[in-house]
Amino acid sequence: xxxxxxxxxxxxxxxxxxxxxxxxxxxxxxxxxxxxxxxxxxxxxxxxxxxxxxxxxxxxxxxxxxxxxxxxxxxxxxxxxxxxxxxxxxxxxxxxxxxxxxxxxxxxxxxxxxxxxxxxxxxxxxxxxxxxxxxxxxxxxxxxxxxxxxxxxxxxxxxxxxxxxxxxxxxxxxxxxxxxxxxxxxxxxxxxxxxxxxxxxxxxxxxxxxxxxxxxxxxxxxxxxxxxxxxxxxxxxxxxxxxxxxxxxxxxxxxxxxxxxxxxxxxxxxxxxxxxxxxxxxxxxxxxxxxxxxxxxxxxxxxxxxxxxxxxxxxxxxxxxxxxxxxxxxxxxxxxxxxxxxxxxxxxxxxxxxxxxxxxxxxxxxxxxxxxxxxxxxxxxxxxxxxxxxxxxxxxxxxxxxxxxxxxxxxxxxxxxxxxxxxxxxxxxxxxxxxxxxxxxxxxxxxxxxxxxxxxxxxxxxxxxxxxxxxxxxxxxxxxxxxxxxxxxxxxxxxxxxxxxxxxxxxxxxxxxxxxx
Length: 517
Hints:
Elements (H helix, E strand, L loop, with lengths): L1 E2 L2 H9 L8 E4 L2 H11 L3 E5 L12 E4 L2 H11 L3 E2 L2 E2 L3 E5 L3 E12 L4 E7 L6 H7 L4 E5 L8 H10 L5 H19 L2 E12 L4 E3 L2 E5 L24 H11 L7 E4 L10 E7 L1 H13 L3 E2 L1 E4 L6 H12 L6 E6 L7 H14 L6 E4 L5 H12 L6 E4 L5 H14 L18 E5 L5 E5 H5 L5 H5 L5 E4 L2 E4 L3 H8 L5 H9 L4 E4 L5 H8 L3
Parallel strand pairs: 15-16, 15-18, 18-19, 19-20
Antiparallel strand pairs: 1-13, 2-7, 3-4, 3-7, 5-6, 8-9, 8-11, 9-10, 11-12, 11-13, 14-17, 21-22, 22-25, 23-24
């Protein structure tokens, strides 16, 4: 999920008629002072970071006048709260509080429906309230065809002991919050606290909205850079990885950097999982083997070879890693030779300069392991493949042994250059790639392995060379599944006439900056 900053969430509240405190955003202490002067009276200065519990972390300050507001902003801006740098503060009028409530809309996976939640114990984490005072919380499953109706919202508040005129006001706020959540594809929209002021107004003092990452493409106006809710600001590699994921819905690809302060020689590995549970088990195995994990990656749900390739390239772009560990559930339903081809293409291109252990289990496992074994002959660093019957723990220990015994070359291996085609035959692919078949090289190929192993069967032989048996437009729309057979199988078992260029936006510039190109 992608979490919006408080100031952006509050701006959305105003579009549905929910009141927020008078205030504005400041990027400097002087701007904070000017806002405080404009507001008049006591103000609250709040760090804009993606964290809950900011008050306990010192991220919320109170000021009685503009001078104090300036000092509060100066003490917050440029500092870190948790893993986040404070770049902006929200300066708002301090409210005179009569009572605090919690109002939220969340998608309940168990109920398979949106649920409205209301509590009279606002200002406290709803989980804490649920554990200590469950009678102060009420829930209502929302019918998505009817929405949340005012009388249902009033009944919800009544369950917690609210009576009188306040019921009418709450019956207005909650349906508005639901309409907003529905409009922006929110997984959760929470106002906490929802303040009843001493003069009888309901005002959202704080708001948290998180957007479903599968719907971000529809919410371009929200300015979401990356649809992930990290506990740290997104790194450059995480942003690059998101560019791969966001427009390619063939399987999943999650990339999270866990450690960015390591140095070569510390036993840090690039980790490549497949399947959430199997990936976590494999990562635990790596930790148990005494290895440190630089990142967490999951490519599962039957991803194409091209997505596995891009994931591997991004993992290998982390400077200073000592090894590469790919291991998943061991019972994956997708054909494992697709994953093997993606890894091999990445290992050949970089090329692989650290030991790698790859554990692939499932359909096509034997073919996948045979490909890895053949590819190992062409790599400067050791590559070993294992199957579903090999425990993740044993594979992690084997990687540790390889790292301990491996002495890398003092000279970094040269990158594999794109083969020059004397007689090129080209077509584009669905993710922006380009397939090039050198018909001069293909003519002399004895195996014609690309025709045999092309997963979508879109190649045919014509005058002794492979050509498309569908139109180029069909290939670009997805007829070519980017299975990488025309490159990897051709390189290992053919004449080397095929190549698939798969761009990764921003990676080359990043690698050059980090010295790993």
